[in-house]
Amino acid sequence: MKKLRVGIAGFGVVGKRRKEYIDRHPNLEVVAVCDKSFGKDGILENHIRYYQNYKDLLKEELDALIVCLTNDIAAEVTIAGLEAGLHVFCEKPPGRNVEDIVRVIEHEKKYPSLKLMYGFNHRYHDSIQEALKILRSGELGKVINLRGLYGKSKLITFNQPDWRTKREVAGGGVLLDQGIHIVDLMRLFAGEFEDIHSFISNGHWKYDVEDNAYAIMRTKDGIVGMLNSSATQWRHRFHLDINLEKGSLILGGILSGTKSYGAETLTIVYADPDNDGGDPKEQTIRYNKDPSWNEEIIAFADCILNDKPVQFGTSSDALQTMKLVFKIYYSDPIWQKKYNIKEPN
């Protein structure tokens, strides 16, 4: 089987990490990259060509494009990749707003043979996959409610570029950048939320994007979700409680490149309200490896090589998750008015 020729648009921290896992795949080969940080076009030591502009990258003979660019240009480059006849993998978020992903989907429909996948990486963590398997088995019954927290200590951490604090580039703050993961996971476990109330704040760091988002939401079936996406969580934390009719699934910690969110665990609670006195039997699984980045690339390649539909990170997932993020923004009347947030359709 021939190797798929891959280009990477955006060769910063995430682009280089994506390359690491592409290099491990026997049927993928990175042949060219682009990044505005390059002073000129040229060739790297490993014979990979590099460009300053993504339009020059797209002149290469490619099969697939990995988009690791800022939110203001992600949708534009994704569309350009599809128009060039390429399969596209784009990092989250899919753009600055809902309109960006709507435009992408309009173009995606023109090319039904091409695969488009979004990098909602957390879905590929072992703890998430195991919790989803238990949920779908039905052994703990139906979901009653969820409580989620995803927090870091600043909007800019670990020498990241400062574009995340600029509304004109990012489109939003901690909720759109990091909190989008917990929004996506709550949708994965509970379905679509319709009734939403929220408070949004940029009162601490004083940028024109939020440093905290608080929301309480309800699905058509009555499942309630509560979340806090925070950039004032001094001890970095990821936590998601999923309470069901016969027990709970508690996701704590997440393995990441920074290692700052603690051990990744899944605690399975087996409730017996008549006999356990509020202290039920539980089992905790601790994960010591993060296969998610590798598994995500394997899944993308499998979709292309074997003409399979995308399972996780579809454009529909991206659209519905973006809609929920912006419904949370819209539901705070003060924030809505301050930044002219439109209600997602």
UniProtKB/TrEMBL annotation:
Organism of origin: Leptospira stimsonii
Give every GFO/IDH/MocA-like oxidoreductase domain span: 128-249
SUPFAM superfamilies named among the record's database cross-references: Glyceraldehyde-3-phosphate dehydrogenase-like, C-terminal domain (SSF55347), NAD(P)-binding Rossmann-fold domains (SSF51735)
Q: What is this protein called?
A: Gfo/Idh/MocA family oxidoreductase
- Cross-referenced InterPro entries, in alphabetical order? Gfo/Idh/MocA-like_OxRdtase_N (IPR000683), Gfo/Idh/MocA_Oxidoreductase (IPR052515), GFO_IDH_MocA-like_dom (IPR055170), NAD(P)-bd_dom_sf (IPR036291)
Q: Where is the Gfo/Idh/MocA-like oxidoreductase N-terminal domain?
A: 4-113
